[in-house]
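Practice problem: predict the structure.
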Amino acid sequence: MFNIFLVALGGSVGASLRYFSYLFFKSYLFTNHIFLSTLFVNILGSFLIGLLITLMETKYLSSYAIKYFLIIGVLGSFTTFSTFSLESIELILSKKFLQAFSYMILSLSLCLLFTFLGLNINKLIN
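Answer:
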């Protein structure tokens, strides 16, 4: 039952962070390219998931706090595949094919790369 509480609490934090990042990108950076907010969030979330799994394995933090609160809760609601999918389809329907396919390729390749970096950060630093 405590795990559900950790996920719910983390989910509310992650969803709020996601919304704030959307507002930040919309207001200050890329007013015509809102999909870049999702790309940034998914890359950052991918890196942090890899990093947190590494921390969980090395026992720097409680595995319950990392797994349920941070990974499933915060990062699960912070990153969003459904928004990525919708934005990709919207770009295609708007006949912005170069942007759509660039976004899809960048999302997949950079998220995988940053997950790998997060998982291996200790090896890279030491």
